Amino acid sequence: MKVIVAGGGISGLASSWELMRLGHEVTLLEQDVQLGGKLQTMMVDSIRVELGPDSYLRRNASANELLNDLGLDEISPAAGRALLYTSTGTQPIPAGLNLGAPTQVHQALTNHLVPLSARLRAAAGVLRAHMRIEEGGDDLGAIVNNRFGRRWSDANIEPLVGGINANTIYGLSARTSAPAILAGKLPASPGGSMGPAFGTPSTGLSTLVAHLRSELEAGGCQIVTSSPVQSIERISPSNVAASTPTETYSGQRLLIALPSFKSASLLGPIFPEGLDLLRSIHYASVSMLIAYSKQPLPPHLAKISGVLVARDLGLMTTAVSIASNKWPDWTGRVGTLVRISTGSLYDRRHLRMNDAELRDTLLLETSQILGHQFDWAWDRTVRWNRSFPHFRPYHAKFIAELDARLLDRFHGDIALTGSYVNGSGIPTCIATARSRSRQLVS
Ligand SMILES: Cc1cc2nc3c(=O)[nH]c(=O)nc-3n(C[C@H](O)[C@H](O)[C@H](O)COP(=O)(O)OP(=O)(O)OC[C@H]3O[C@@H](n4cnc5c(N)ncnc54)[C@H](O)[C@@H]3O)c2cc1C
Question: Is this structure's pTM higher than 0.90?
Answer without folding.
Answer: yes
